[in-house]
Give the backbone structure.
Amino acid sequence: MASKKQLETPLFERFASSEDVALYQTDKQYIKDIRKAAFDLFRHHGFPSTKNEEWRFTNMTSFLKDDYLLSGLATMLSTREIDDIYHAVAHQLEAIKEDGIENPYRIILINGHFSPELSVLPGAQDITIGSLNDNMDAPAAMEYFAAIADTADAANSYVALNTALYANGLFIEVPKGKVIEQPVYIFNVYTADRSAMILPRNLVVVNENAELTLVESIIDHTSGQAVLVNKVTEIAVAKNAHCHHYDIQTGQNGLRIIQRTEATQQTNSTYNNYTFTFPGTDIVRNNLTIHLNEANLESHLYGLYLTAGTQLVDNHTEVHHKFPNGESNQLYKGVLLDKSRGVFNGKIKVYQDAQKTNAFQQSNNMLYSNDATVNAKPQLEIYADDVKCSHGTTIGQLSEEAMFYLRSRGLGMASAKKLMVNAFAFDVTQKVKLDKLRSFLEQKIQQTIQ
Amino acid sequence: MLSIKNLHAGVEEKEILKGLNLEVKAGEVHAIMGPNGAGKSSLASVLSGRPNYEVTAGEVILDGKDLLELSPEDRAREGVFLAFQYPVEIPGVSNVNFLKTAMNEIREYRGQEPLTAKEFMRLSREKQELVEFDAKLVNRSLNEGFSGGEKKRNEIFQLAMLEPKLIILDETDSGLDIDALRIVSRGVNNLRNEGNAFIIITHYQRLLDYIVPDYVHVLADGKIVKSGDKTLALELEEKGYDWLKS
């Protein structure tokens, strides 16, 4: 037991002794076994402290002091609250939805639970969308559930905790050959009238020759309660399949998000991830891990984080090149305001067989205030000899000369800063293929800077 | 139009301008020449309000307004324009978007309505032609990947668009080949009128073959030590600056 590597917190004691919660009566035996194994791992590892290398810059101590409720949320929403959520979703959808889509897929998850009443699924015959528990018999669920996201590493004990104790989640499966042209909008609604830990658990399977675009966003109805979202999303992208995954992270003070998105890819497939994190939440820790499990495939990971106040936003990526001719590209940019902190840790691992790999990584940060900090760390582990890999990290400030140049042409401070930040973010925002979503993001960046 | 009296200014407690006087009237072109380190570019910086420069004494009045009181943007809005020696590259900021924002903020300051997209486009096309600026460059990111000559031509294009009254060209000729120099000079000459004035800062006489000044001043050790007409520039070209120093 490496006791120094875990946080000593009453929360751990409480969770660790609540095994009965884990063994949901209705679960199938194989799920019970998975939960049991994950629970043992969580109990063994505990919550990682800053002694764990993967958590070195992200101290969770102050976020694990609250007396989080583990279950019992979300089942009893008032009509008024459902009404509020309905309107909030409609409002957000209007802001991000592409023009010309009359009746888009809307998936509403309330504290991680799929809501069939609020969700709208126009093309139900083309795609399976439902609660995870209702789909546990699906071959794809049996194959992939808890088989992608890593629970074994001590750094991933949040995943172990989620696996052991999640109540329900979302299941999406796109059948072979089905190209879903329209984006599927997922609204992660968080609502709580007391401090709580929410454990969303999602599984997305895109079968051979299929294509799917997901746009996730957050509706925060926690009204300032301390709410820790510990979310796990597993994604399987089959041969010749493509998955484009947008994740818009917003929220209020009190909301803490620890999430792991882990994807596995087969040959000739693409997985693209676009993560945009905005001020508001206390902390966001994104673990994004991609397994290039066959030859000839590509992954693109783009991230933009705008942080403010005392917020901490931590992006940890891992790209595992296991077979030849894989390509990965990571571009993460941060603009840090006030006393906020950013962390970027990008790992590229090229296994011995993964010849002709192209793997690139870039992390650029702009400190907008003297009190903001960034810790950026590229990690390249390369065991093949015929590869092209590169990484670069920059941490800079708003260029005074550029600011003066703009002001000397009559632009005020505010517009000059806005132009500069937009310009900095441009490399990432221009990657967004959905026009309306891109202009929504650009506007949100401008609002943040004002 | 512009009156500079006993201007003392410097950077980080090092005094660079040491009692500079200059009067510029509308319609005039003044060339300022002088050896390296004399304070030529500092004068441009102080007039346009570059941060880090500190004025310790003297005054700068533009049409009755105390320039030294104003922020760089308000100076621009009052009609000051500095063509940079080293125009800044700003990837991701489109030339068009930047210029439109600048023009409309200037218009707002002057109590004018913003330009419509159509008006802006028409004006932009007209001015591109006037200063021979490539339409392709207009639509690119601000100065990104521009050659030295293209950057300077962009400065002149911005100048044409913003129509300022006091224009300072800070070594606009540096790094230009002879063709670019001709185009830039033609642009400037097309923009000269009775209502505006130019201060041309340069090392070399050759720019003044194309943009003919009304007055030539020699700046040495932070002061204007000699003034004359355009023949002074030729004399300087021949004799250098040393004869003025003692």
Q: What stands out?
A: Chain B has a mean pLDDT of 91. Chain B touches chain A at residues 48-51, 71-73, 75-77, 81-82, 84, 87-88, 90-93, 97-99, 101-103, 105-106, 109, 141, 158, 162 (CB under 8 Å). Chain B has one domain: 2-245.
